[in-house]
Design a protein that fits this description.
The chain has a 4-stranded antiparallel beta sheet with strand order 3-4-5-6, covered by helices on one side. A two-stranded antiparallel ribbon has the order 1-2. By secondary structure, the protein is α+β, with helices and mostly antiparallel strands. The protein is extended, with a radius of gyration of 20 Å. The protein is 39% helix and 24% strand.
Length: 147
């Protein structure tokens, strides 16, 4: 079974109103299916999963140390609970006089072999850019490639 066929099979059972952030359209049995991955709200990104056993959509906010989770039996319920969870987190932080964590602040540590580090630094120098600039552009180019 191809990757596309597996995705179609996996998502045929999902609610038809399940449509959010990143989508991939697939035609299956004359029915257009949209495969979703993420929700976005107030700078927070939530990953979406589906529990076939519980017949429930659920997720958590990515890119922070704390846990902000949400769930719903339909896409609309999931979206509402996601927004309520983020709003509740922000209100709790404000009430406690705590600065809320932000998702994906733009910096992260990467551990790579020393040879790769050296090669990347030398290539960045050849291109007259910083190592950060080289890594950023390399990631950007990789994300543009079709899988």
């Amino acid at each position: 079974m191809s990757k596309k066929e597996k995705l179609i099979e996996r998502y045929l059972s999902m609610p038809t109103d399940f449509h959010y952030y990143e989508t991939v359209s697939i035609k299956a049995s004359q029915r257009s299916i949209r495969l979703m991955k993420y929700l976005e709200y107030k700078g927070y990104t939530g990953a979406i999963e589906y529990s076939r056993e519980d017949k429930l959509l659920f997720g958590k906010v990515l890119g922070i140390k704390g846990l902000i989770s949400f769930e719903g039996s339909t896409g609309v319920e999931l979206d509402m609970d996601f927004k309520e969870a983020v709003d509740s987190y922000l209100a709790d932080c404000e009430a406690s006089n705590i600065v809320p964590e932000r998702s994906f602040k733009g910096s992260f540590n990467v551990r790579i072999p020393s040879e790769l580090h050296r090669d990347a630094a030398l290539k960045a120098k050849e291109l007259n850019t910083s190592l950060n600039g080289f890594v950023s552009e390399s990631i950007r180019a990789s994300l543009r490639q079709k899988v």
